[in-house]
Amino acid sequence: MPKSTTPNHERLDRVVAEARRQREVRELGYRDRALKLFPWLCGRCGREFAGVRLRELTVHHKDYNHDNNPPDGSNWELLCLYCHDNEHARVLDEAVRNRNVQGVAVATHNPFADLQARLKKKSD
User: Fold this and answer.
1) Three-state DSSP state, 114
2) Which stretches in the chain have pLDDT values below 50?
3) Which residue, 84, 17, 12, is CA-closest to 44?
């Protein structure tokens, strides 16, 4: 009987679910420690969090390595959801800028390059 070429979705689903569970367990551990070590304010915008809103305070890894969790919290800072998203977007933007500076080809296609001519031809 030939081997099936269709992927085993059940196995893949189990692997992904286990990876997510392990990440959540790891995150809970360092988040709880960070909340005990640091004041409950965003390290960027300075907003204070308490009660229900405490869930909006996230742990940012300064070196972007989520496995680097020293017991003294030296690789962490508490950031609100908005500042945390902004921090990661800033890093991605910087990486793109650096690639462009280093001579890596950037997108050159302009889908609207001949729009004026097409509109003129259509109206004629």
Assistant:
1) coil
2) 1
3) 84
DSSP for 36-85 reads: HHS-SB-TTT--B--GGGGGGEEEEETTS-TT---TT-TTEEEEEHHHHH
| Cα→Cα distances 73→32, 59, 80, 97, Å | 11, 10, 17, 31
Tell me if the pTM is above 0.70: no
What pLDDT, on a 0 to 100 scale, did the predictor assign at position 103?
Answer: 60
- Return the number of other C-beta atoms located less than 10 Å from residue 26's C-beta: 13
- Tokens representing 81 are 């959801």
Q: From the CB of residue 83, how many other CB atoms can be counted at a distance below 10 Å? A: 20
Q: Over the stretch 17-33, which tens digit does the pLDDT of each residue have?
A: 998 888 777 766 888 89
